[in-house]
Amino acid sequence: MMTDVALIQNLMLATLLFSVGLAGVLFSRNAIKLLISSELMLTSVNINFVAFNNYLNLDVLAGQVFSVFILTISAAEAAIGLAIVVALFRLYRTVDVEKFRLLKW
Amino acid sequence: MSSSALNFLILLPLIFSGAFAFLFNAEEDPARLRQVHALATVFAAILFLFNLFLLFIPGSYDTVFQLPWFPSLGIHYAVGADNLSLLLCSLTSFLLLMAVISSYSNIKHRLKLYYSMLFLLISAVMGVFLARDMFLFLLFWELELIPMYFLIAIWGGPRRSYAAIKFVLYTLFGSIFLIAAILALVWYSSFSGLSPDSLFLFDSVAHTINTGLVPFGAQVLIFIAFFLAFGIKLPMVPFHTWLPDANVEAPTPISMLLAGILLKMGAYGLIRFCFEFLPQPAHALVPYVAIAAFVNIVYTAGIALVQEDLKKLIAYSSVSHMGFVLLGLAALNALGFSGAIFVIVSHGIVSAALFMCVGMVYRRTHTRLLSEYGGFATQMPTIFYFTLLMSMASLGLPLLISFAGESLVFYGAYISEAFDSISFGVIGQLPWSMQTITALSALGIIIGAAYILLMLKRAFFGPLPQHWQALPDIEKSELVVMTSFAALVLLFGFCPQILNGYYQPDVKRLVDAYSKMSVSDDVSQNTQMLFKNARLVYLLPNANQPLGNR
Amino acid sequence: MNWLLSFIWLVPIYPLISFLGIVLGRAVFSYFPSLRSSASVTTEMNEVSEKAVSCYFPKSWSLFFTLSATLLGLFHALASLFWLLAQSPTEITVIEKNIPWLQVADITFSFGYLLDPMSVMMLFVVTFVSLLIQIYTHGYMHDDAGYAKFYSFLSLFNFSMLGLVLSSNLFQTYIFWELVGVSSYLLIGFWFFKPSAAAAALKAFLMNRIGDFGLLLGLLSFLFFTLSWWQSYLLDHSNQALLSFQAISQSSVALLESAGPELTALVAILVLMGPVAKSAQVPLHTWLPDAMEGPTPISALIHAATMVAAGIYLVGRVYPLFQASEVALIVVTCIGVLTALIGAFIAITQTDIKKALAYSTMSQLGFMMTAMGVGAFSAALFHLFTHAFFKAMLFLCSGSVIHACDGEQDMRKMGGLFTKLPVTAWTYLIGTVAISGLFWTSGFWSKDEILLGLETYASRYDFAPVVFYLMTFAAGLTAFYMFRTFFMTFMGQYRGDAHVHSETPVMSWPLAILAVPSLFVGVALSGLSEELPSFASYLTPVWMEQHHQHTVSLFSDIGNRSQIIGLTGLLLAALIYGPWNLLSAELFRKLLAPFHKLSLKKFYFDELYSFIAAKVYWSVATATALFDRKGIDGLVSFTGQSVMFTGSVARYLQTGQIQLYIAVLFFALFVSTLFFLYKLQ
Fold first, then answer.
1. CB C605 within 8 A of CB C287
2. In B9, B192, B445, C91, which residue has its Cα 20 to 30 A from B108's Cα atom?
3. For residue B530, how many other CB atoms are within 10 A of its CB?
4. Does C632 lie at the interface with B, CB-CB under 8 angstroms?
């Protein structure tokens, strides 16, 4: 059943997800949305890992293991990201990323 | 005495520097300041006496004392001294003592740091003069910048940070060439079959060059790189503009050291690396060295003439005098080399003394503008007489210290047969011989007299302006410094042979390297080769192929 | 006697010790006040500010130091004089001793002394005149604040001058040559608080430096061409030094061989630049009149009798070098004639007594130089010898007058001083007669010899008779302007308003003593008497062929003619400037208006030089300095600033907007992916 799905379809899904994520990262002003979008991008990477693992018919489930790792790390990253956003919100009373220009020239 | 004693010349100031940095608390009441000054004087005196001891006790200082440092890279800690090195070390320790005594009246705050930096500087300078390993030399050469930066930037005048940064950046710019040249030489010596753990030693490098392993084109490039690095330090026109700024902004004792010793590091490097290690390119390139000398002497003398700022005037005169060193070196004969070394020492003493004089006047008037001076001879007669003596020494009056050096340079350069004409590649040939350039450079003695005399006239002669009615004359500490300078100026002025005889073995060694070469045709041949065969292939190490055959 | 002779090298050392003694004494006395006792010490009061300068030294000590040094020198000089006169003039042995001073490889520069007729003559002149002037100075400078300082400088000058006289070689000569220059600088600028004195001192030093520059190059070129000759020569003559005067004639031959006539002429002319500056010859003469800013004893000693004559002395020393080149000798002659004429011409219109005397010195030095040029070697030295006495005396007289008139130097404010200053007036008259070459005084004999040499010379070149006539004319001018100064100063009515002091013995005795040689030394040494030594026979060196063997007599053709010309000058001066007012000076002034202007403006030399130095070179130097600051240093600053500028532009890429960074990142990724895809195909 699973093998019926061709690699290219998986990759197309991943690309779609990634593009949505990228668009979200590039065009959203809300820091929370930014975080969510980056999660989307990570998810698309996970799909790629799993798809390639399937496609190559490896004995070890390296792709799946990696995606688990990435999920973990992205959870941690999301936690830190949220914490930073909260801290910034406390400081500026906003979550608009265009207002955060501490590293400007 | 063996050459291991030389280590103390580097170590003692380093220890003193550390002592000032770590051992005392920074409490700054006047009594405390006096104690720190006194202690520094004692330290400087110890160093000076030890140095004199080395100078007068015969020893085998030229056998290099070496310890492996980074054997895998071929780097040693190696020190040794010929008479030239020892002479310059003595000049250094003498001027240090003078600088410390003159700090009594000139430096009033952050003394601990000041003396710590001062002694660190001296340690580095001693290291430069004594190092017998390329890497060690480079290390000390760069190390000297750090204390000097702080000495100018903390205790300097109003534009001190600009001057300090300019000084450091300029010297670092020169160091690029120095590093490149050293690495190139070491690269060539790695082909020489010498043991790889001693590649950086002076001896290995000299051996590599002597066996003809370094092709002529590469030697020329290395010579030019060294010449740039040391020319910046000398300083040589057009790389001289850091000196007036640094000298003007530095406090008096530091100006003394800057003009008295730091410039001599450049001169020492020129003699040691360009003219001792690389005789062949030196022989080919002396025409350009001579032109540089002429430009140095006459161009900067003209600038000194119209300076309004007294200290700048003396700074430019330093540049002008360093031209005599270049001219003496360009002669490539015994008289020229002796003259160059003599000028190094004499200028070290005279320029330091002149900066001291400027400092004394500045401390009393708080201005350096000659247009505001006048008639000081009536107010400060003792200062005037010392300034007069040093000015006369500076313009090369006979029986004062500079005369012997300048005469040797002129006689050496004039009877030199180093070249008959100067080639400029495709542009053409200039029919100027060494004699022509020397004669033109001798114009410097007229302009030199002009700016010195004009300075004396504007500062000391004439009626005294009303607002300078209460200028005190010389103080005790200043008197000690000036008397010491005056004694040396007169001693070496009347008996220059004491000094001149001392470094003759080194001069002989230098001259021997050149006496083997045939004279003028070799030069033109080499110079032509320089412009025709500028291709990278010629830079590869050639196995024992003698030069000039290609 | 022999003892004095073998320690002749002490002669310059005595004044050196005296100089150091006074300098150190002053230093010690000012830093250890307990040494001062009120009786022996005077506080030097400054004339500008009332503040006491911290220099205390007993006057009597400095006088004692200086005088005893000179006196000892005079003993040595007399000993050497007797040693010389004991020898026959045809075969004189000379003494030369050298010690190495500076040695490099196979080249040794030495210090030494050379005793030959020329140096013995100069030694005597210098010590004798010095001694008298130093005594005179005591009276002249007694009230001056810098009494001790003045004596120390006098000692320094004596050291340099005696070292110069005794020099055995050119290198040593160059050393003392510069030292006399610096003593002269110090003494001209003695009253340094006067701007004019400070300027004059600077000018004198610089003019002499230009000469030294030429002299140095001359020495260097000479050595360049003859170095190998010298090295082989010194192997055989180990007691001589490099560039020794004894071997100048042989080495000049070697020079001519190796350098050819053109370069030999060049070497000689370069060497000549030294004497031209030192002896105030055209075109480097302008410092000498200005040097009169110094105290008058200095003008007498340095700028009339000894130092300025050193130029002639040096030309005499290296005379074979000039003989080797005909061109060089003609140049010497031309310079001499020009100097004699220009000096005399300017002296006519001077109103400052010292400046008039200065121009007369210049003119007389021109006579000597001309004599050297035409080959009248001993005549030139003879004139140097006699001139030293009467010119020193004339200057001392002028000093006496100035001292008496409270510092007034303008002759228009003098007059009628004959009765008030009888000794001065009489000695001045003697000096005037002597310098005019009248009545068989010493100047008559020496000038006579020069004119004789010129007459012999006249047959040698086409232009040579012109030289003779010009110099005879200059001799007439000499009498005219000198008697003009005499009449203006001493005759007629007193025109000044200062109270005239009477003479003091300490100042009038030296005058009286100097009057003796001014009157009689010429006739004594002229060779008229068989008993006395003849100057010419001793001073004509062996390498020089006797150009003429004239018989000396009281009434020779040339002597008569020059006396007549001199008397004409005297008569004219008496008519115009005499107390009888027979001819109006105004009339001549109008008649010769262009010449008068030229003379008054000193031929515009000063204007020309100040234009060259202060305008042309100064603007060049200013432009160079500007170029250095703006151009070279500007380039350095530009390098730094361009880095700063790049940074300041590039920083705007750092917007702080994370989304921009991400966009750029992905765009770059996209482009590079495309690129690699394209490549892989």
1. no
2. B9
3. 17
4. yes
Q: What residues of chain B, 381 to 440, have a C-beta less than 8 Å from chain C?
A: 381-382, 392, 397-399, 403-404, 407-408, 410-412, 414-415, 435, 438-439
Angle formed at CA B108 by CA B106 and CA B114, multiple of 5 degrees: 90
Lowest-pLDDT range of B291-295, C38-42, C56-60? C38-42
Closest Cα in chain C, distance from residue B397 (Å):
7
Rounded Cα distance, B350 and B343, in Å:
10
- Which tokens belong to C663? 């966009």
CB atoms C651 and A105 under 8 Å? yes
Angle at B177 between CA B175 and CA B179, to 5 degrees: 70
CA distances from B19 to B14, B36, B39, C227, C350 (A): 9, 11, 11, 57, 73
Q: What CA–CA distance (Å, rounded) separates C571 from C556?
A: 22
C650 touches chain A (CB under 8 A): no
Q: Return the percentage of chain C with pLDDT > 70, whole number.
A: 94
Distance between CA atoms of C404 and C419, rounded to whole angstroms? 13
Q: Mean of the pLDDT values across residues C111-115?
A: 88
Tokens of C286: 């302008």
DSSP C239: T
d(CA C627, CA C91): 64
Q: Tens digits of per-residue pLDDT, B204-251?
A: 888 888 887 888 888 888 999 999 999 999 889 889 999 999 999 999
ipTM of the shown complex: 0.89
Return d(Cα C74, Cα C67) in angstroms, integer. Answer: 10
Q: How far apart are CA B352 and CA B518, in angstroms?
A: 40
And the tokens for B344?
Answer: 């190094």
**Range C570-598 average pLDDT:** 75
Give per-residue pLDDT as tens, C350-379: 888 888 889 999 999 999 999 888 888 888
Crossing angle of the two packed helices B242-249 and B310-331, in degrees rounded to 10: 130
Nearest to A101 among C652, C657, C666 (CB): C657
Cα B368 from Cα B378, distance rounded (Å): 18
Establish if C359 touches chain B: CB-CB under 8 angstroms.
Answer: no
Cβ-Cβ contacts under 8 Å between B and C: the total is: 161
